[in-house]
Amino acid sequence: MASNTNFPVNLNIKPSHNSHDRHVLNAFDSSAQEAAIREYGIAGRVWEAAFFLNTYIEGLLDITFDPPFSTPHDEEKLLSILELGSGTGIVSAKCAKQLSNRQCTVIATDLPEVCPLLAKNLCKYSEPEHASGPRLLVRPLAWGNYEQAEAILHELKNTSDQIPANSGPNALTHIICSDLIYFSELLAPLLRSLLHLTGPPFVSSSSTSDWPKIIISYKVRSLPTEMPFWSAFGLWFTFEPVLCRQSPPHRPNTSATGNDPEARAGEALENFEEPEEDTWRRFGSAGDDEVFVLVARRRPESLVWDVPPDDVELLGGVGASGTPSRKGDCTFETLLLMGMEGE
């Protein structure tokens, strides 16, 4: 992946203004973003889908998410969370804050030249509030770079003597992706990294319930550009959208941000209609912007398929299903059609 992808030609972006998170506001507010954009380009901006993902990670008393970010199964093991393309680090910061009373590891990754921004923004979270709190690391990881990924794996294994027995046999429990699907030349490297992080040597357990869970927040910007990723991704991974509904009993919230998850996610959803009790809908489906929060897992049978080294072939489905033919998956297209039918 080219090192100048954070500075595309004619770059002209402004800071986002949607954060209501009191814990990270100072590090990620408009002025901080403005300075970061000048030095780090695209990586210095907090992109819209991050607010949805942070709301999902935090959870809300009056809203039920399905599936939830943290399940009872997760509570029984040590979490090891890796974020790809962390940018400013706002999502990794939320993970560390949300898990402040739990022993776990949060790894924020990006291009080597972006890591100084991550280190600066996440320095207050690098020291856990409790002795048993999270360990937050900043590490370089360019998409598709196996050497950098396996350096992280080696580091995790070297600290395994400090990890309790209930940590599970796999290196990672969660992989986080926030607003990473945009440039066509980055789609194949991103998919390649996801395949690497969800296969051997990162995965050693035969129990699929212990395999890493991938959580993706995604704002639709250009479907013709972005659909090749979803067509190929669905061949190797199963995925489903996060749903939400009002939790009974309904207790009105008079705070400035209200009790709705999408209102909390940002001002861009000011026209959001609160769901009726017991009515499920896709989280991110309201408002002018189409946002998805998706939970994915590797298809077990795909571990023996050959991943083609050519990016065009990878996005074309070559190697998936164990065959050299070109093919695609229609899961995401179906989600789009279901959303249109519900309007």
TrEMBL record:
InterPro entries: Methyltransf_16 (IPR019410), SAM-dependent_MTases_sf (IPR029063). Gene3D superfamilies: Vaccinia Virus protein VP39. GO terms for molecular function: S-adenosylmethionine-dependent methyltransferase activity. It comes from the Eukaryota. One of its GO terms (cellular component) is protein-containing complex. SUPFAM superfamilies: S-adenosyl-L-methionine-dependent methyltransferases. PANTHER family: HEPATOCELLULAR CARCINOMA-ASSOCIATED ANTIGEN, PTHR14614:SF161. This is Methyltransferase domain-containing protein. It comes from Phanerochaete carnosa (strain HHB-10118-sp).
